[in-house]
Design brief:
Shape: globular
Distance between the termini: 28 Å
Largest sheet: 6 strands, parallel
Radius of gyration: 21 Å
Oligomer: single chain
Number of helices: 12
Number of strands: 9
Order of helices and strands: EHEHEHEHEHEEEHEHHHHHH
CATH architecture of the largest domain: 3-Layer(aba) Sandwich
Helix content: 40-55%
Low-confidence stretches: 306-314
Number of domains: 2
Strand order of the largest sheet: 3-2-1-4-5-6
CATH superfamily of the largest domain: NAD(P)-binding Rossmann-like Domain
Structural class: alpha/beta
Bound molecules: NADP nicotinamide-adenine-dinucleotide phosphate
């Protein structure tokens, strides 16, 4: 096992992401020890039971002595947690986060700056629709992108901290890139935030139609709809905070999306098969590009895993 990148890390928020970092750091030897804190008594008890690390009773106790503090709480909670954590952190330690929105998260973290810690916002582009400490697993970040949005006007010590944090995520198996926070938010608005909004919406529409169609929407749910229900099962608090904090970029994408949807609607109404063929063929090439880039598997997927047939969950 290589030498740990950090002697000690502290994770605040022990849900899917926090617990996955704890597991991965132990599995790949990226941290000498892991301190944990969550505001929920129940989550702290579960984290202790799962052996995820040294569970502290207070935020202050968790972050004191850590070389790197990683905030794994919903985006809307970042500012308060960062302000509570920073005064108790070691001089020269790193404060980072995993929030899915970066401009607001960076503002929240930098608002807590006392000039003695290195604040480096971050976002692992990896996750599932599940939440809580039991949902995490050590391989979550393997081959996934991890985006850092560091300060640009930085001194040498800060740049060295960015390299160290990159080394930590690389040790967990991630591919690290740095990016300007606004650009991150525009890219993620179309690749992650809008697809989730569409999923929440289509599932809500189907739920309303369920009554009209007398239960047959769920009974005959096809692969396409089932894929949307999986995405729409994601944590409501997390997604509420994403939309409230990436408003501009999401509204911009939504405007474009609505115009394109109206064009498809018109093509269906007027029987414009050529237009439909053109658009669907173009979509297929994007799917192929994603598979070729190693971002997904091209394996046949009927939208059912073995758990549906009463076998073990994969
Ligand atoms: P999660 O499973 O719901 O875990 C979040 C944990 O943080 C919960 O245990 C929550 O406690 C706790 N918490 C909330 N406010 C807190 C506070 N003020 N102090 C201490 N603990 C607090 O959520 P998650 O999926 O791990 O998401 C965490 C972060 O990762 C979010 O910022 C999200 O944007 C980001 N992220 C998520 C994904 C994903 O796919 N899920 C992917 C990439 C990044 P309660 O349950 O009691 O509220």
């Amino acid at each position: 096992m290589p030498d740990p990148v950090f002697e000690r890390i502290a994770l605040v928020g022990v849900g899917l992401i926090g617990s996955s970092i704890a597991r991965a750091a132990a599995e790949y030897g990226a941290a000498g020890s892991v301190a944990l804190y969550d505001m929920s008594d129940e989550v702290r008890a579960k984290a202790a039971g799962l052996g995820l690390g040294e569970v502290a009773d207070t935020l202050e106790a968790a972050v004191a002595g850590a070389d790197c503090v990683i905030l794994c709480v919903p985006v809307g909670a970042l500012e308060a947690v960062a302000k509570a954590a920073v005064p108790h952190m070691k001089d020269g330690a790193i404060l980072t986060d995993v929030g899915s929105v970066k401009k607001q998260a960076a503002g929240a973290l930098f608002a807590a700056d006392n000039g003695k810690v290195h604040i480096i916002p971050g976002h692992p582009i990896a996750g599932t629709e599940q939440s809580g400490p039991e949902a995490g697993f050590p391989t979550l970040f393997r081959n996934a992108w991890h985006i850092l949005t560091p300060r640009e006007d930085a001194d040498e010590a800060y740049q060295a901290a960015v390299v160290r944090l990159s080394d930590f995520w690389t040790a967990l198996g991630a591919k690290v890139e740095t990016m300007e926070a606004g650009r991150h938010d525009r890219v993620l608005a179309i690749t992650s935030h809008l697809p989730h909004l569409i999923a929440f919406n289509i599932v809500a529409t189907a739920f309303d139609m369920e009554t009209v169609e007398q239960g047959e929407v769920v009974k005959y749910s096809a692969g396409g709809f089932r894929d949307f229900t999986r995405i729409a099962a994601s944590d409501p608090v997390m997604w509420r905070d994403v939309f409230l904090n990436n408003k501009e970029a999401v509204l911009e994408c939504l405007g474009r999306f609505s115009e394109d949807l109206a064009a498809l609607q018109r093509a269906i109404r007027w029987g414009d098969g050529d237009m439909l063929m053109r658009e669907f063929t173009r979509a297929r090439t994007i799917r192929k590009a994603i598979i070729d880039a190693g971002q997904d598997s091209g394996a046949v997927n009927f939208g059912r895993n073995e758990a549906v047939n009463g076998k073990a969950k994969p």
